[in-house]
Amino acid sequence: MSVGFKEAEPLATKIVSMYDLMEKQLSKEPHYMFQMRELKAVLRAAGQIKTKSPQLNETSVCIKAIRDMNLAKLISDDVILFDKMFEDLFPDCEEPEVNMDDLQIALEDCLDETGRQLNENIVVKAMQLYEQN
Amino acid sequence: MRHGILILGNTMSGKSTIWQILERSMNNLSKVNAEKYKPVAILKMNPKAIHAKEFYGCMDDSPEPQYIMGVFPHLLKGMITDVDTHSRWLLMDGPVDTLWIESMNSLLDDSKLLTLNNGDRLPLARNCKLLFETENLDVASPATISRVGLLYMDIAELGYQPMLAKWIDSKEKENVGIKGEDYKTHLQELVIKYIPKVMNTKKTICKELVKSSETGSIINFCKLYDSIWGNTVKAPDGDTTNFMSYIEKIFVFAIIWSIGATLAEQSRRELDLVLRDIEPMFPHLNTVYEYHVSPEKQDFSPWEDFI
After folding, report:
1. Domain that holds residue B264
2. Which of A15, B13, B161, B201 has the most CB atoms within 10 Å of its CB?
């Protein structure tokens, strides 16, 4: 399960405290759950990201995994809280830029083609749906 | 990353829109960048449209029972035999119910296996994902929720504004006897003047007999306005100032009987106060609910006229 992580131990502590914080600090929604299975899903996601892009450093991999797995399900008020927690636990670390411009442009074009209004939130959500895939 | 994804959100929050545009975009992109994007084919089914027995399959009632394959295993089997060049999403669009979702847990697990009651074990194909689209998770167990990736669509993010914007945009082309542009601007002003205040009152003070969604009431409002407009309004001969205030009256009347239609008796007084406060154009007697807009007089007139 370690999938070649070298700094697994310090990162593990951080991931666990992140999940602890989310459980305690975020609002109580019926669809929120931050238990073992979610934790495992994040680890698996981190493994996949590491295999796909080995040039990333391990902290960035974890950050990306946590964000991918959680951001999509948060209600808008909690997103701000989530970002704050992130800053606290992973200071000086930024989420690795993933080039999704082509998808974003395609989505925007698609909204236009089908006669829909351009809505940023819808595009973001569609991109999150892609990332979960 | 996940092979089960659940899109959660209220009606009109854009749940269907996001998978529709993503499907289309990925199909478009796959023509340009085939390495990164695979074309997607989506199979849809409504899990609540069929009986639970028909969903997974069951033994029939004959003396020598035969197994009848359910709809879901049938779709699942079809996806296994498909070639690997496509991504396949099996979308279950409908309320989540313990009857079918609990049995899907093993499929949503790492094992990705569905065991049927005739002993068949069906795997989930590698290129295949399960998508769920539902309004709430009232009956879903933690076991299910923790197995799927969740995507929450916040209705507050989208709101009712896009609906109004689309409605107003469609007005420019309409032939009403005044310039389309003027008509559009006038409606825009009316929307700013009334809608936020009315919606706010409804949300904060008013009680409803039947719960209605915000976007739903706005859609009703647009439809009601359009139908009154199409049936009764004739273009003015000369004076447009009168006509503009006539438009406003129809506008308010449509608000009362769409956004205000679901309100309880006591709350109707609140709406009455708010509307009179914005523009004192109603007769003083009775609440605003007691009047209709008479096409002859181009003014408010009590319902008793019709008796």
Report:
1. 159-306
2. B13
Whether the Cβ atoms of residue B254 and residue B225 lie closer than 8 Å to each other: yes
Asked if residue B207 and residue B133 are part of one domain, the reply reads no
- B25, B151, B162: residue with CB nearest A125: B151
* pLDDT tens-digit series, residues B123-165: 888 888 999 999 989 888 888 999 999 999 988 888 899 999 9
Total structural domains in chain B? Answer: 2
From A91's Cα to the closest Cα of chain B, the distance in A is: 26
3-state class percentages of chain A: helix first, strand second, coil last, to nearest 5: 70, 0, 30
Q: Domain A8-89, what architecture?
A: Orthogonal Bundle (1.10)
Nearest-CA distance from B71 to chain A in Å? 24
Residue pairs between chains A and B whose CB atoms are closer than 8 Å: 110
Distance from CA of A101 to the nearest CA of B (A): 12
Is the pTM for the entire model greater than 0.80?
Answer: yes
Predicted pLDDT at B73: 92
pLDDT value at A118 more than 80: yes
Contact B189, B47 (CB under 8 A): no
Alpha-carbon gap, residue B71 to B265, rounded angstroms: 48
Looking at the fold, whether B130 and B58 belong to one and the same domain comes out as: yes
- Select the more confidently predicted residue: B131 or A7: B131
